[in-house]
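Hey team,

Filing this mostly as a record. A colleague (T.K.) asked me to run one chain through the structure pipeline before their review meeting, and I want the input and output archived in the tracker in case anyone asks later how it was produced. No errors, nothing strange. Just documentation.

Input sequence:
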Amino acid sequence: MIVALRGRLAHWDAAAGMLWLEIAGVTYELALPPYAADWMASYAPGEELALFTYQHASERQPVPLLFGFPRLREREFFRKFIEVPTIGPAKAVRALTHPVSEVARWVEREDTRALQQLPGIGERLAQTIIARLRGRLLEETQLADDGGPPGAASGSPPDVRGHAIEALVALQYNRRDAEQVVAEAVRGNPSLGTVEAVLRFVLERQAGAAAG
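Output structure:
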């Protein structure tokens, strides 16, 4: 499995979303999602760039395909996205016309109408996406949309409390309420060491309170 590549930009076809990357005399072809076009526009032919990749091959598609992403968390989102029935890698890469953080927020908010903005995503499939992925994209909701350098928001340990608060605000929580529930969660549960763990704890507790 090829998980990352670094090389020289040989060719970029923005309309087709196809990148050619030359590495030690070998040129790799990668498909990039439409949202990555702005990031690619910052590179000129011959410049070096690095990106994370997902390699796919199957019985029906024996020739390996490579899909590229500016950041690791975007690659991980893609891997989750293609777990949804009827969304294969080719369909998924074409559908991602909006930043990963935005799509993740739509899923977490159960916003089927927003998801239907994505090419190839109808109402029924939008409902399936939410059913399969809601609660699993909490870290993706707090990704910055600035197209930062490869590996941004995925390398050093994050400011868990601060990022959890920002994620809840993105999910339309009042900032003061978000700060309060995150502080209570972290204070009472020191083992919550990741943003996703804090958010899952907060949301599950909120759901339990509403049910009670």
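Quick notes for T.K.: The chain has two domains: 4-142, 160-211. The radius of gyration is 19 Å.
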